[in-house]
Design goal:
The structure is a single chain. The chain has about 170 residues and is mostly helical. The protein is built from 8 helices and no strands. One of its GO terms (biological process) is proton motive force-driven ATP synthesis.
Length: about 170
Amino acid sequence: MSRQAIKAINWTALAERVPEAEKAALTAFKSKSDKYLQRMMANPEALPKIDWAYYKKVIVTPGLVDRFQKEYESLSVPYPADNYTAEIEAAKSETAKKIESFIQEVNVNIEELREGLDKLNDMIPFSEMTMDDYVDLKPDGSMQPDKVTTWPHDEASQEHNTNNEDSKGSGH
């Protein structure tokens, strides 16, 4: 990781996104990161230059300094391979798609709820509603004078015949 990348971490923005239960873990992580940055900043960014000419004059063993110089300059410490960025980007893309889908679903629900709210707002207030208005509004959930029922007034306990209409018309 470069020094600039470590300096560029926006800890305040990160802290805003972390849930309260995880704040202590974030604080501990930031402390470790700050200690690492402090140790790293104590060292120079590039390796110090070696004065090979000076060592060639001082060391009398022929070829020794040349061999050390060749080995030193060919030394390469490999940076660990990045095996996770592609996976993280794929997960990020997938999550973004899920979020967009969720937003669309919620917006559809919001629109349906607004339509329902508009219907309620356009309705006659209950304090001014007559029984006929209520029957018109809720035909299945209201007592209907032309439909005689017996206790407990549920569909399962009622007789399923037309005797009620016959008895009404016959004057019994």
